[in-house]
Design a protein that fits this description.
47% of the residues lie in helices and 4% in strands. By secondary structure, the chain is mainly alpha-helical.
Length: 194
C-alpha cells in the first residue's frame, strides 16, 4: 500500500487491487446479503444520484458501511434518528434541516460536503479513491489496506482503527468493504467497472 494521498500516485494500485480482489469464502453469506440490500434499494440510490451526479453504486456502498442500509439514519455517519442533525463527525449536519426530514436530503448534503456532487470522473480508480476519502486516509498513512474498501477480501485480514487515532493490529472489521460491494455488483452484471 502506497502512503501517498495523491490520486495520480494511487490510480494503478486501485485498479490492480480491484482486479485481483477475491472474496474470502467465509464471508460469502454476509457479502450476498450486502448485494441483496443494494439491489433492493437501487431506485432510492439512483434518485439521490440523479440529484448529485454521483453513481448509485457509490451511494449504496457507503450507505451499507455507514448505516447498514438503514434509511432512518444519516448517510454521513449512520447517526440515528434521521429527525435530528448528526452528532458524530461531521456533527451538526445538515446545516439546513427541517425535521423530520428525509434520507435523500441527508445523502445529498453529505455528498456535497465531501465535494462529490457534480464530479465528472467516476472511473474505477477515482471511485475507489473517493470511497477511501469518505472514510479517511488513516490506514494508508500507516501503510495498511483500508477495511473500508477491502474487508471480506483477499486484500484484508485484520487491523482496524477502534477509535479515532487508535489503531489495533488485532482488531478485525466485521463489515463488507466498499470495493468488495462494488465487485459483487460488477460480477453480478449490475454495473460495469472492470
Amino acid at each position: 500500500i502506497r502512503r501517498s494521498l495523491k490520486f495520480p500516485d494511487l490510480a494503478e494500485e486501485y485498479a490492480a487491487m480491484f482486479k485481483s480482489l477475491s472474496l474470502r469464502p467465509e464471508h460469502r453469506e454476509p457479502a450476498n446479503w450486502h448485494l441483496t440490500m443494494m439491489r433492493q434499494s437501487r431506485s432510492r440510490y439512483q434518485a439521490a444520484g440523479q440529484r448529485t451526479g454521483v453513481p448509485w453504486h457509490f451511494i449504496a456502498a457507503i450507505h451499507g458501511l455507514e448505516a447498514s442500509f438503514n434509511f432512518r439514519a444519516h448517510f454521513h455517519n449512520g447517526d440515528f434518528p434521521l429527525t435530528s442533525r448528526t452528532r458524530q463527525v461531521p456533527a451538526g449536519r445538515p446545516t439546513v434541516w427541517l425535521p423530520p426530514s428525509d434520507w435523500e436530503n441527508s445523502t445529498v448534503d453529505a455528498l456535497r460536503l465531501m465535494g462529490f456532487a457534480g464530479a465528472s470522473d467516476w472511473s474505477l480508480a477515482r471511485t475507489l479513491y473517493r470511497l477511501e476519502a469518505f472514510n479517511g486516509f488513516g490506514y494508508r498513512k500507516i501503510g495498511r489496506a483500508s477495511p473500508y474498501l477491502w474487508s471480506f477480501s483477499s486484500h484484508y485480514v485484520r487491523g482496524k482503527f477502534v477509535a479515532d487515532g487508535t489503531y489495533s493490529a488485532r482488531a478485525r472489521s466485521q463489515q463488507c468493504g466498499t470495493a468488495v460491494m462494488l465487485k459483487l455488483l460488477d460480477d453480478a452484471g449490475e454495473i460495469a467497472l472492470g
